Amino acid sequence: MSGSTKTMGVLTVASLVVVTAYTVALGSNGWLWFGWVVLGLVTVGLLVSKPT
Prior knowledge:
Layout: H1 3-26, H2 30-49
Helix pairs in contact: 1-2
């Protein structure tokens, strides 16, 4: 796993924590969840496209 893929993974997990905390504190925001899903899909795409 390359450095950029690890960074994207950490960013994805950190953003999930932030979005979840926002949802608990202030209520759900669909755009935040949509953004997190897109970020997750980009991260998965990086993982799949990298040669082993």
